[in-house]
Amino acid sequence: MSSNQLDKKSQAWSALFSEPMSELVQRYTASVGFDQRLWKADIAGSLAHAEMLAAQGIIGADDRAAIERGMAQITQEIEAGRFEWKLELEDVHLNLEARLTALVGDAGKRLHTGRSRNDQIATDVRLWLRDEIHAIDALLTELQRALVEVADRNAEVILPGFTHLQVAQPVSFGHHLLAYVEMFARDAERMNDVYRRTNRLPLGAAALAGTSYPLDRERVARTLGMVDGEGKACVCQNSLDAVSDRDFAIEFTAAAALCMVHFSRLSEELVLWMSQNFGFIDLADRFCTGSSIMPQKKNPDVPELARGKTGRVVGHLMGLITLMKGQPLAYNKDNQEDKEPLFDSVDTVKDTLRIFIELVAGISVKPEAMERAARLGYATATDLADYLVKKGLPFRDAHEVVAHAVRFAIQRGLDLSGLPLDTLQSFNPDIADDVYEVLSLRGSLNARSVLGGTAPAQVRAQVARHRARLA
Ligand code: ARG
Question: How confident is the model at residue 12 (pLDDT cuts 50, 70, 90)?
Fold first, then answer.
């Protein structure tokens, strides 16, 4: 095979190379298997680049028209599943460019003027991720809405609140769910923050040092919607940085990992609550599976998997951040390894969000079981201490008095509210008949009406605030 034939057959980049790659090396270095997913972003970036090249007189208007025509045809081919992705063309960029050139000739070869795959890939990933962040943000809003509705219906439902997984104080189930709304609201804030730093344009950085062509980078940024709140073009301001850093992807994955951690905590609670030993809730059958050996089993597979998949996304964060750490400026091929973890993080978070939006709406609550559990474990002991404080006892002394009363009640297998008044008075003579209201679960709940507290009135106020915020 002559070297000329060899270039044509197996190498897209150059006549410099005198021997073909082995199949193994080709597979090892190619990214088209996964980066073809970026095709839409790649075409959008190319069209914006071509539009600017023509406006700047770097290519002709006829070239630009031919590029647009070719890209329209390629879009159709890909959407119809007729596009032939070739491993020997390495990545999404070279595959699209080769096809474009086959379709429109020299105009296709002019597209790469003033551009490198280094600024091209950095642009593609940002464009792609930007849209995914939007989608995730919308799903986070839906999830919060679903949680707020269940919280509203359950503002008056009492379950034991735990610390150290020991019964601590009674809380409203609505309040408990709204804690997750706060977490997912912060996840959305983080996503929006990452969006700002993702939506910036690397194109024009070329391979690493910028380019000698008179490119209008701000024009390209505006065409691609890479603008800030005031409509000002957002362009990466240092060419070396533009092609090399993937911090936006790391930040995104960190935000995604945290979001999954929130899902994981919620999942852990759902699993516990569904266990017979709690029996607080039931999940709709469509989110559970049975056992092949134990006919009575209904397993909460979806929350278990969400908990498990959290490990993947946390792992991707570790992978990406480690990928970056040893790289000298500017672009290095290491960065090709950013895609699979990033893609999988996006897919995992989106799927988990979609499933939980439905799952949350379908939770059936068992208020009697929750209340029964709240009555175990002396959940209103703090209320008795607070009651004594109101009678003038210093809090530490009140704490001590109640500890004695609880110890006494435990020995007799009774709740504090099961002790007769004269027994309670033997621990402190100021205790009067009104103590029984204080010792009731509902009394305890209603008393915690500080801002952010668990009193149903506070829960309703928070529901209203969230509804307005999420409208
Ligand atoms: N596939 C590469 C990536 O994902 C595209 C850029 C390659 N640039 C290069 N000069 N080899 O990062």
Answer: low
- Ligand 1 pocket: which of 93, 95, 117 to mutate (most atoms <8 Å of CB)? 117
Pocket lining: 335 vs ligand 1, CB cutoff 6 Å = yes
Q: What is the DSSP letter of 299?
A: B
Strands 281-282 and 364-365: antiparallel
90-138: per-residue pLDDT in tens?
999 999 999 999 999 999 999 999 999 999 999 999 999 999 999 999 9
- Whole-model pTM: value is 0.94
The alpha carbon torsion through 370, 376, 382, 387 (nearest 10 deg) reads 100
For the domain 3-113, what is the CATH superfamily, name and number? Fumarase/aspartase (N-terminal domain) (1.10.275.10)
Is the beta carbon of 118 within 6 A of some atom in ligand 1?
A: yes
Question: What are 213-233's pLDDT values in tens digits?
Answer: 999 999 999 999 999 999 999
Domain range list for the chain:
3-113, 118-155+165-371, 373-470
118-155+165-371 CATH: 1.20.200.10
- What is the CATH topology of the domain spanning 373-470? Ribonucleotide Reductase Protein R1; domain 1 (1.10.40)
Is the minimum distance from the CB of 121 to ligand 1 under 6 angstroms?
yes
